[in-house]
Every structure is written in C-alpha cells, then in structure tokens.
Design brief:
This protein is α/β, with parallel strands linked by helices and 462 residues long. The chain is built from 16 helices and 21 strands. The strands form 4 sheets. It has a 7-stranded mixed sheet with strand order 8-7-9-6-10-11-12, with helices on both faces. A 6-stranded mixed sheet has the order 16-17-21-18-19-20, with helices on both faces.
Amino acid sequence: MYQIDFQKPEHVHVIGIGGISMSGLAEVLMEEGFQVSGSDSHKSELTEHLKAKGAQIFYGQQASNIEELGRRICVAVYTAAVHSDNPEYQAVKEAGIPMLSRAQLLGQMMKNYRYAAAIAGTHGKTTTTSMAADILLAADKDPTISVGGILHSIGGNIRVGGSDIFVTEACEYTDSFLSFFPNMAVILNIEEDHLDYFKDINHIRSSFRKFAEKLPKDGVLIINSDIDMYQQITEGLKCRIVTVGKNQGSDYSAGHITYDEYSRDTFDLLIHGEKAERITLGVPGEHNVFNALAAIALCRELGVSLEHIKKGLADFAGTDRRFEKKGEICGVTIIDDYAHHPREIAATLAAAKNYPHKKLWCVFQPHTYTRTKAFLDEFARSLAEADEVVLADIYAARETDDLGISSGDIAAKIEALGTKAHYFSSFDEIETFILENCVKGDLLITMGAGDIVKVGENLLGK
C-alpha cells in the first residue's frame, strides 16, 4: 500500500471530493501543505469551499481530468461510492498512479496524532463526535475534528487544530474502519444495518470485534454496556475497557433524567455509580443522554474537567439534519432528521413526543431497497409511533435493483397497525397534501438519509 509522508507534502487527487467526509480530509491535506485536486458529479458548497482554498476542482468524473493533470498526481484517493467502472478511476489505474481508499487515507492520517480517537457504532456517530468536539473546544484543547455532518461551532465538517488530538467518525460499512489506526475508540451500539454488504448481525459483530482488536495495549475502548453480549467484543483485548450505559454498574451512567418543554435532557452523571455532576444537554431525546455519556468518557480520558464537559454539552446545539428545526409555516413547526434505521426513527419520534405539538406528522423517505426489505416490519412499527405518516419513494442511493419492494408496502403495514399512512410518488404531491392537512400547532418531521429535506425547505419557501 502506498504510504503518504506527511513531512513531505505532494499532489493528491481525490475522486469524489464533494462528499461530506472526503471534502474534510481534503481540507486537512491542504492545511498540511499538500496540493489537492479532485472531481465530483456536481458543484456544492463543499466543493466551492475547497476551490476557494486553492484546490483544483473538476465537475464530472472523466478520463480527461487525469490526462490534464498528468504526472503531477502522486497518489489518487477514491470514495466508497466510486467503483471500478468509473472512467476517472480507470484512467488512474491505466496511468499507474498509486491509489488509496478514503478509509486508508484517514487511517494514515491517524498515525500523525498522539491521541487518535475513532467513534464507531450503527447510530449516533455524528452526534457523539460533534459533542466531543464542542467539549474539547470548551476546554481549549484545539483538536482536529472530522465529522460526517455540518457542525456550526466549527463552521463545517472539518476543523484542523494545532494540538495532538484527532477525533473522527469510524463507519463500519464495507469494513472501512478496519483501515484505521486509533489508540482511542468508542463503540456506541451494534445492530443490523448495511445488509447489502454484511451477511447478518454476526458478521457485523465480527467486524466490530476486529475494529476493537486494532487498539494498542496502551489504548482505551469506550463501549456501551447495553450492547447485547458486549463482553464478546471486549474479551481478551489488550487495551483498557471503559463502559457507559443505562446499567448503573457501568463506569459512566445516567440517573434522574428530566426534560424541558423542548424535550432537552437534564440528568445526573454517575461515575462508578456516584453522582459527579448534573448535566443539561442542548439537544432533545433520551438517546442523546447515552451519546453524551460516550463523549464524556472520551473527553475525561483526554483530561477534560467536568466543568468544561458541562459547558460543552450545554452549548452543543446539534448538527445539520439531526432534529434540526427548519422553521414554521402557518403555525406548523418543521423539523428535519437524518434517521433512516428503525432504531433511529424510534428514538427521534420518542424525542418528538416531548416537543410541543398537537399532531405529530412524519414524512419519511426510506433509504435503499435492501434496508427497506430487510427491516420492513421494523420500519412500520417505528413509524407507527407518529400520529400520521407520509411516505415518499425509496431513495435508491447506490442500488439499481428494487427487489420488488416499495414505500407502498410500508404504508400498508403501518395502516395494519392502526396509524394512518399515505404514500405519494412525488415531492410535489407530498407538499400539497401537507399544506391541505397540517394545521397550526402540528409538528412535522421530514426524515431520511436521502433528499427528503427538500420537502420541508420547499414548504417554508412557499
């Protein structure tokens, strides 16, 4: 594998530079003195930001981009969305240019930091990474942060710090996190997902075990003790183990959880069962209490005081597309959320029930055919917790085979559970339906990992 020498900056070309993670890593490279070029399918705020910083950006991934750059490219980096039939990928291979995946690049970056923390789990990675970022900033730790969303406190998805601390998300999809080299790691949860790659839950658990095994003897693993048989993940590891969770036998747990009028949590932080502090979060939902416990444990390992932890969590107002209030129209509050797995949907709707509303509406866009088919019944049960559900067509993402499944199948199962469900094949139809049926005091959540956010934004534009 090609090894980048961060002491000798060179020219790196990025195929898929506009992605939320890849754009951040490209910016880190530029801050370290590397020359960066890259391509993406379309212009975005992220690509324009990189261009303003000096990156050479091509729109459209084609062989001529590589031909134009020629021998200037020392190594090319590609995202998981780029496949071997991509014309730019093929041109790089034909030119004999060394290649790295995004995960391999990120893994090599980690080696340059004394403290390299990777936050993994089926859900909650972005929120927990962002919480840790705001705590570290409150403590003036000057970290480098790579997060899979837009965090307003750092003005984007990346922050290049001047210290020896690097904190990043670690995604399990295609085993990409096995290319990482952390000495600190968090495992938030382990559940079935990405079944277009993983065979089953045992395959997923095996991958998380391999991820944990990568930690060195002087490293630390922070793991949620609520994970089913979590000891199978930790047994025999050389590193130190720290547990967080609902069980007060965990190293970090929470007690006496209360909510304000906007579903934001306050709880007793219990360390080894003893109350250490009363913590108030700036974001809603009980699930965020347990994301916060993981962020607290990580930051305590990095020497942050409880005073700074308390301030950082109180100041944390969330990231884009995580229970994000978009605005109001005719007295209807519009929230947007990235939830696209049944467990995430359940957590978001549970938080919404503590938020002021008359009727709770959920406009859901399923993400990928494989996930929809695998969790059809679970999606129906989670969504049925709303008062009324509106379904958009499935967002195919990388998939081409519809597997004979549609959003109409989810709608039918929701109806069978006694909750009204409506399926429309276009956003225009959904927006018209919402305008005709939502009334003042209702709460509307647009939900999913695709482009369903446009529905709320379009409504507010009207």
